[in-house]
Amino acid sequence: MSLVFYLFFAIIALFIVVFFWSLRKPKGHTVPGPSSAIPQDLQGSHVTHLPQIRRALAPADFEFVSKKIPREALRRMQRERRNVALAYLSALRAELKRLLRTARIVASLSPEVAGGQELERMVLTLNFLCRYWVIQMSVWAGFTPLPQISDLGDLLSAYSVRLEEAIRELGERAAMVAEMVSSPDRRRIDPV
Amino acid sequence: MRPQMSEIATLVRVLGDFSVCFNLALVFLLLYRKNYRIYPCFLLYALVNLFQGVVLLASKRLWGGDSAALFKIGWGTQGLVIIARALSVAEVCRHVLAKYRGIWGLGWRRSLAVAALVLAYSWAVGAHRWQLFAVTADRSIELAIAAAILALLVFAHYYQVVIEPAARFLTIGFFLYSCFQVLNDTLLERWLQQYANFWNLLGTVTFLASVLLWGWALHLIQPEATSPPELLPGDHYPLLSPAINARLKALDEQLGRFWRAEGEKT
Q1: Which of B160, B189, B202, B213 should we substitute to test contact with A (largest number of A Cβ atoms within 10 Å)?
Q2: pTM exceeds cut of 0.80
Q3: CA distances, B121 to each of A21, B34, B85, B126, B152 (Å)
Q4: What ipTM, to 2 d.p.?
Q5: In terms of DSSP H, where are the helices of chain A?
Q6: CB–CB of A96/A158 below 8 Å?
Q7: Among A residues 97-156, those touching chain B with beta carbons less than 8 Å apart
């Protein structure tokens, strides 16, 4: 009896927390119109900085420098290298977030949305974040998993390029539809 | 103790009269501002609520506050009120999301499923005392309504749909009212008789607060209709969504490989 009593209080407390969280204004503000919703230019990606990051984290560099500079400076260098890796990781995450936002906008502005696709994306995003935190923590702990960071960058880069291609193609189609809408003979237009 | 109980009973009576007046004002506001065109089910809900309030007031005068007849009328009309509220909540949710056909199509099914699940769970947990049938049923339905509102709000938040202020206040009113009703029913179930007066007081105060919120929401509604968003052509989603998911899957696999490598290392 008392368990049921407290259970309902706990459920309502949880509901209220989630309720106020969901009432917060989304960071991206509102869902924009289709023309401005999808970023046309995905350039300026953080992934393009990967060669510099790779260079900064290269073990050969570290070995060479360790013979030339005092211990204190070496430690400082290690710390700075770690900060570079962390900054790069967080930039990659921000980029992933931006791309996910694009996916959400596409979904919200689509006349039909597949539940399976959306659920799959949510699960994948959750998995990604969990594993991402593990990489981040291992960097914090002093490891520099360079191949993994590199893979992560490559994947994001390929993802951006693929998405950019698809968006360009869609943009061309949207422009065509807009042209048809503005033409006087509207009977030919199939809405949506 | 006795004087305290009678004071609570008097307060409940006064607040009950107030809530009938506010409810009447809400109906007038709905009619005067022609908000019923946007929210017809909300008008129905306000009318059913008003009907219940008037019937309860009349019954109290006729048979007194503690009569069995009043109890039966109260819980009997509560069924009507709760159905009207469920309809009204569905209407507000539709108003928020229906402009986005795709996510609304997905959202209402998910929301209904969540509500059904919560209803079944709540009923299973609380249905051990058949003498409390009405309280258990009321709590289950209120919890299901709260869960449905929450599911749709989470949906709107996830897809970055901005809820207009009027709909936001209506939703807050419905959600908080349902939540407090669940808490009230839970307390009533435990302390039944000793708590009855206090239960009435909390119920009336919660209802009054919700009516004020709804009144404020109706005051905010702009008469001019907002234009629906321009949707993308139908082939965009099937093209983009699988591509994004495939990329995420690959990304996830890479991270998984790293995870395994780390495990082997340690």
Answers
A1: B160
A2: no
A3: 24, 39, 21, 9, 19
A4: 0.71
A5: 2-23, 34-37, 50-57, 59-68, 71-108, 115-140, 146-182
A6: no
A7: 99-101, 103-115, 117-118, 120-121, 124-125, 127-128, 131-132, 134-135, 138, 145, 148, 151-152, 155-156
